[in-house]
Amino acid sequence: MIEACTLQLHTKGRWNDVASVSLLGPKADGWKAKTYSGYTVDWAFAHAGASDAHALCVRRPVGLEPFQEAHWPVYLIDMLPQGFGRQELLRRMGRSPTAGVAEDWTVLLAGAGNTIGNLRVKEAADWLEANAAGPLRGFTDDEVALRSDEFAEHLASHGLFVAGSSGIQGEWPKILFTRAEDGLLYLDHTLPDERAVQHFIVKFGRGADPQLATILRQEAPYMAIARRLGLRVHAPLVLRRRALFIPRFDRTAHGGVVTRLAQESIATLTGMPGIDLVPSHDQVCAALTRHCTHPQTEVLEYLKRDVANLALLNKDNHARNTAVQRDFAGRMALTPLYDFAPMYLHPDGIARRIRWEDNDNGRPDWARVVDRVCEWSAPALKPARKFPSKEKGAPAPALARTALVAGLKAMEPALRQVAAEGEAMGLEPEVLNHLRPHILAQADQLAALA
Predict the structure, then answer these.
(1) Fewest CB atoms within 10 A around its CB: which of 235, 312, 372, 396?
(2) pLDDT in tens, 330-359
(3) Alpha helices in 70-121 (DSSP H)
(4) At a CB cut-off of 8 Å and minimum separation 6, what does 359 contact?
(5) pLDDT number for residue 166
(6) Global pTM?
(7) What DSSP state is assigned to residue 139?
(8) Pairing status of strand 35-39 against strand 67-69
(9) Going by C-beta distance under 8 Å and a sequence separation of 6 or more, which residues neighbour residue 383?
């Protein structure tokens, strides 16, 4: 029997069957199994050629052409539970929480029913509904933050942190919540859309390690500092005890109508399969230039984020900590910033993952970076230099070097202010003292950029 799943996409208030993925290789191969996928005929005719939020991802425009790949489609890997959510889901299903790729398909069909963005796996949504337990119950913010006994019991009846939240990837315990019109928070998948007012990810502290506790405490000040640096920030984060309340930006709720926006990681954007593989910064900028509605704006935003990561030592820049968003009107851009924290403190010793090609020893030359991204996009130079992407299609638009330089240099005063006044912005003294030379080094580099 062929193993297959149905992909659903949410638009205009309902879930639609839009595509299917079939395994051509053994299920035990996990995400490495060969696959055959394609849109349904009805969806292909209704939205032919669309690469906006009606598409599975921007590299797979809607159409009748099927796709055969040597692995799962990368957008499907984006939906595969990882980290804490995966472990809890495997426990719920009576399997080893450390099970490897051989359980990927099983995990997908149970854990991808309520993911970030506007896609879900139909079979996983059915599993979630079948395993729901107990009456609809709302909680105050304090109850969630305190993790009261009653709240813990309610979570246990829903598979602990698993139910409706296992699709969030990452090692930290996280739960998806929705605030209703009564002001209470409900497990996201249990609340009807017409009652939704605001959506959250709540990230909980884990373990007793003081370094991990500091990372969680500093994430909200880090996001506020990112706004000062001119980065794209959605909304303030709020820490209550050991629970960080993070407003979601992949959904909007107005007048009882919830719109789910498409979101794909830069792994999907660059066609990078697997969990650990990462593209280079060069490949990401090439894809942003080719696909985004306003390439100049998005490439500058991306460069500024790397400056901020280097200045504030957020080393955990893997391929699923940055994403792009597509709406139904055709706009595509980087999402607001997320997972921005002092990851240099992580006890496992996290190394910088995504780097600039031939220009990254932890301190890239920004003049060379800007020259290179502009060189790729210059039509006159394209025949002489291969664009750092495997994609085919129309050439990317040219980028203006002067505007990129001006945008980067505009960060310098804010960086110096953070170095001088970081404690007033919420940075703990030990953190600021460690960061200060790195912040000033980036400020100095930007001051010299011409």
Answers:
(1) 235
(2) 999 999 999 999 999 999 888 898 999 998
(3) 74-78, 83-92, 104-111
(4) 365, 368, 369, 372
(5) 55
(6) 0.92
(7) B
(8) antiparallel
(9) none
Mean pLDDT of 351-371: 92
In the block, tokens 């913010």 appear at: 141
So where are the chain's domains? 4-127, 134-258, 262-448
Is there a contact between 340 and 218 (Cβ–Cβ < 8 Å)?
A: no
CATH number of 262-448: 1.10.1070
> What residue type is 338 in one-letter code?
Y
Is the separation of the CB atoms in 62 and 49 below 8 Å?
yes
What average pLDDT score do residues 31-47 get?
Answer: 97
pLDDT of residue 424: 98
| pLDDT, mean of residues 255-260 | 94
- Concatenated DSSP letters of 32-71: GS-EEEEE-HHHHHHTTT--STTSSBTTB-SSS--EEESS
DSSP result, 425-449? GT--HHHHHHHHHHHHHHHHHHHH-
Query: How far, in Å, CA of 222 to CA of 439, rounded?
Result: 13
From start to end of 273-401, where are the E strands? 323-326, 332-334
- Specify whether the CB–CB gap between 203 and 173 falls below 8 A: yes
Read off the pLDDT of each residue in 189-199 and give the average, rounded to a whole number: 94
